[in-house]
Amino acid sequence: MNKRNIGLIICALLALILLTWFKFLLTPLITDEQGYEYTILPGASIKSVTADLYYKNIIKNRFLFTLLIALHRNGHDIKAGEYLFPKGTTPSRLLNQIITGSGLVYHQFTIVPGWNMRQLREAIAKESHFHHTPQILSDKALMDYLGHPELKPEGQFYPDTYFYAGGSADIILLKSAFKAMQSKLITIWEGREPGLPYNNRYEALTVASMIEKETEFDEERPIIAGVIVNRLRRNMLLQIDPTVIYGLGGKFNGTIYKRDLRAHNPYNTYVNKGLPPTPIAMPGLESMMAAVHPEHHNFYYFVARHGKDGPHQFTSTIVAHYAAVAVAKRLKAEFFNHALIRYYLLKLFSDKVMKFPFISPDT
Predict the structure, then answer these.
(1) Boundaries of every domain in the chain
(2) Strand duo 161-165 + 36-40: pairing
(3) What is the mean pLDDT of each run of 10 residues along the chain (363 residues)?
(4) pTM
(5) Which residue of 109, 150, 194, 324 is 20 to 30 Å from 130, comparing CA positions?
(6) Distances (CA, A) of 39 to 101, 102, 128, 352
């Protein structure tokens, strides 16, 4: 065979190789109209992903795809997550997606205002798209990871809707929510009204959490903040029912009993003066703003007018408060109506009002 024929054969082989190569590069791997969803787990290698896609008949030529990886500068640096490869995806586009993280499927997770840490953990545990990490299982491990071991996690995660890629670590989302809360809290604290009876922004967050649990009506939040501020300034017991509920934990069955109001735990504001040791929930922005901009008034008491979830009746004296409690309970016909009897006695002997024991609207 002469040199000319050898040259022709080599050219033909090169042409065939180039044709095969370009055909491989330009032929779509995905033909389904809905595309193809694929999840790369954390720690997966490009070799294992290539093998898996080949066995799933997505990659048709494993050798050429491996060659494509070798020719790519960052071919081995893939990103974990849940991907959607759309119709028409070519080998180059697929490789580019898993290297750059483009085309990831994002899910949303909402931290609801008023949730406590237990509820947040339960919601995360139910979310199947997260990569669950052991760091969130204990308060200490979580706050150590976030770099604030001096803080308790309660109340420290900003209620909002967050978007994350499938397979993302749950602790990464919590880190974002923690940073968001810190940013909001610092800004709000710096713009606070002067002269508030709080020692630091953490106490303002604690007040905001109580406001969050007391009402769902935005217009009431500054008024309740004002009640709390008035009581703190007069060194009165705050007597906030949600703190009692929080202190009971799993023992709370939906009703606050007199024994609960007398229980000695750090969160019972019917027994302990001042603020509870930590927030009792994740407060929303409106409650945080109300805590540092309370309404100025002379109210010291409030009771829900139409059940525990209704709007509140605010009063300035214990006598008026007991009357509001009696009305709220709608005790109409009972002869020995203890709430009404106490109200009338207080009205007659108002100068001795502080000798009477407190009552709760829920007891």
Answers:
(1) 26-100, 198-355
(2) unpaired
(3) 62 74 90 91 89 94 92 82 92 93 90 96 93 89 95 97 89 97 97 96 98 94 97 96 92 87 93 96 98 97 75 89 79 44 54 42 40
(4) 0.77
(5) 150
(6) 12, 13, 13, 71
